[in-house]
Amino acid sequence: MIIDMESRKNNIKEGLDNIVTINACKLCTPLGACIAFKGIQGCMTILHGSQGCATYIRRYLISHYREPIDIASSSFDENAAIFGGGANLVKSISNVRRQYNPEVLAIATSCLSETIGDDIEMIVKGIESEEKIPIIPVSTASYRGTHREGFYAALLASVKSLAEKKDESSHINIISGMLSPEDIRYLKAIAGEFSDFVLLPDYSETLDSGSWGEYEKIAEGGTAIEDIRSMGSAAGTIELGGSCGLVSTAGKYLEEKFEVPLKNISLPVGLRGSDLLINSLSKLSGKEIPESIKKERLRLLDAYADAHKYLFGVKAIVYGEEDLAVALSSFLSELGISIVLCASGSNTGSFKEEVEKSIIDFDESVTHIAEGVDFEKIDEIAAELEAEIVIGNSKGYKLASKFGIPLIRTGFPIHDRFGGQRIQHVGYKGAMMLLDNIVNAVLETQQKNSSVIYNYM
Amino acid sequence: MTNNKENINSAEVKKELLKQYPPKVARKRDKQIVLIKSKNEKTEEIQANVRTIPGIITQRGCCYAGCKGVVLGPTRDIVNLTHGPIGCGFYSWLTRRNQTMPDGPDDENYMTYCFSTDMQEEEIIFGGEKKLKKAIEEIHELLNPKAIGIFSTCPVGLIGDDVHAVAREMSEKTGINIFGFSCEGYKGVSQSSGHHIANNQLFKHIVGLDDTVKGSSKYRINLLGEYNIGGDAFELDRIFKALDIDLVSTFSGNSSYDQFANSHTADLNLVMCHRSINYLADMMKIKFGIPWFKINFIGAEATAKSLRKIGKYFGDADFRKKIEDFIKKEMEEVEKVRVEMEAKCRGRLAMIFVGGSRAHHYQELFKELGMETVGAGYEFAHRDDYEGRRVLPNIQADADSRNIEELTIEKDPGRYNPRITDEKMKMLESEGLTFSEYEGMMQEMTNGSWAIDDISQYETEKMIELYKPAVFCAGIKEKYIVQKMGIPMKQLHSYDYGGPYAGFNGAINFYREIDRMINTEIWKHIEAPWKKRPELHAKYVFAS
Fold first, then answer.
1. What is the pTM of this model?
2. Does domain B63-185 have CATH number 3.40.50.1980?
3. A428 in any annotated domain
4. Shared domain check, A296 and A147
5. Which residues of B are catalytic?
6. Please, what is the Cα angle at B184 between B178 and B190, to 5 degrees?
7. Residue of chain A minimizing CA distance to B478
8. What's A69's domain CATH number?
9. Single residue among A158, A178, A205 that ends a domain in this structure
10. E strands, B61-188, where?
11. What is the mean pLDDT of each run of 10 residues along chain B (544 residues)?
12. Which residue of chain A is at minimal alpha-carbon distance from B118?
């Protein structure tokens, strides 16, 4: 059954609309932190709360990445919920150390431990010297922010706990956003063309590894602790995303604390986004852009020209984490696609401005921007927009199927298609792959809806 | 085909499983790992339903997951409203692959929707009742459903929101049947506490609301503890229809509110997943006089046996003959496939660590394939699910269990009806049809195999390393780690996107799928760790 929400909402009493969240367009804060911590070498994450949080987040991440993901829990009982979970946390740290022998521990809080006011920084300070490995505490109450805020908070906490100023180094820091393992692999390859670099968080292997020859308690890969330490001495930082409404980010912290110059750019999706990344890398490293990358760019431009006839004026709905929705809007507008709705479930207050900036020739009579919305609201706004394609994660399936239009899957979570962890969004190559998918989805729809048999389009 | 069980010294297995733990943890885990002895030796008792030690990575979920996700999740026309921050609602949004079939396209089905109050910091500080009430009002205006369930997440209990008072107030205001569940995640030790809470509230607020006796069949049953994963319920529906059995209500696969309300008019309760639903079976027995017995529709033989039990209960010869004829007909196709698949699977080992009943039920299917289950255990079951209900009087309630409400139930003065006489019940029992009883998983397991409660990730890896089973069954959290080790892994929560596996057609599906899984070429290309370093494993092996 698909409930016709638009017509029902017309009858609703004033002051009631959107109190209840129906089909959320966001996930919870600690989930984002868990993804980020998977990008640190030898790291185990403990969620400080009831064990359901760790279990739910594991099962959800695993359904997207299709990889083993271990997240421990301090397993609160009713006593801990009333009297504080410090003892449980200390016990969980000791047990995780014994079983997993991690190089570093990350501790993220949950709604439960935050509500009762457990001070994990204090608890961690009390035992860190005893445990003899670094422990990264991060506050991730789900009633504050979304998975995206949790992701960036975890990165900030990591550099806060580990980064230091040593001898100046010529390497570049790349602080990545909520991207796929395939994206991270690509970023590493590109960055390597220019300079020595440290990329945080590097979950390119830990969340998308090959078959294991030997059993690994903690999946191999990730940004080495030594490398994170060295981030305070880098020649500069390129930080991707995180510009929407975040007071502090890992990049900002490194700049303020260690005077590492920061270049914050949006997620490098599409031509302009990729140009900005490549140019920043070139500038920071003082190195020319290699021929191979220039060729990739030209190939993309050529594809833009080829695709134009199919895509110009096509109406699209795009949604997701703010950073991705902003970056995708930028890309789609380069293609001549008309973005009729750009939406996000989080509510930072600066989304509108960022989307307006990202879209070429922004026209507010064409593009609706909605933040802090659920899928029912998206559905309601979309009713009159006559969109032709939807771009976002698996949760938009219902919306797309209601309008009978294709959904091009991007971002997270993707649990109704195979290979979500291998979708590339960033760089010229990522843009090319998205472009192919979008054009083909448009063509397929035309073919399907045509009464004559087209096979030459 | 190699069968590693024969070569392993079981005393060493336990040592190996425990050696990495600190002494206190090892002592606790020791009691949860039990070697099955031969029929004339006494198998030790198992410790179960005790809290997972912090930092041990467990398969278990939380109270909320058991209540909202498992028991109430599969009902299509109750609006399930999660009261809390967004995560809990999101993660329980259609993730269990429960299927449902509304009577018509316009019939209510909220299962594909996820309703949440999406609490923000403001509500955590000042209380969330106001937002909850408004959310209910909005649902009322928007959807006007028959019922709304409010599910509490961790912060709710702590900030003092009274979901039951809100439910009462809003129920009066809107005329909708609204009820709350105090299923905060930290309650109890696993999903199990949530099942109990769900059972209680369903019984208090819905069961018994509609006395109309519907349908025309003489054989009116409820199916308890069946959740229609992968379409299991549809296969069982087919069987019941063929036998002219009226399924009044299922708790809760493919179910609706009206079925629950009417369920007390059935004449027999069949209990499938004992763990999650035995409370309702007991309460319906006491209040309405409906007898219950345990059945199992996983496995063709088990299905046949369960149908015969139903036949015996209702008694008449025609009905029993109809059942026999039906079984005979169904088994023809089943046997054809079974024989073919058994030839390719016989002698191999399986492990099943899942659920509160599935680890038991699925042993039947493996048996039919000639495979032995060398290790099995539950995620959230109690001792009675392992050792049988006869141990119930000996189970000491700990602090975690005492916190879950036990309803005091009395005979319904007007509607209590014992269905069958005491004499008839005694007679049936003497013929082997036992009521209100469950024998548990362990009695069906073979000498030298293991029952392990709440297995940890670490123990999972060790068990696989030691026994190298042909297939390992658990949930999605375990799936990929097992497959990295070169062992096929079958999900028995979500069925790996397959199913149904219940009934006769389900058995056929399962045989074929296990054959495909364990005999595919892929595993030959994946080099398992022990293939690379055999010296690591040799030490557990007797000299041959």
1. 0.96
2. yes
3. yes
4. no
5. 62, 65, 96, 195
6. 120
7. A68
8. 3.40.50.1980
9. A158
10. 78-83, 115-116, 147-152, 177-181
11. 74 91 91 94 94 91 96 96 97 91 91 96 97 97 96 96 98 98 96 97 98 95 97 97 98 97 98 97 98 98 98 96 98 98 97 95 98 97 97 90 92 97 95 96 95 92 93 95 92 92 98 97 81 51 30
12. A21
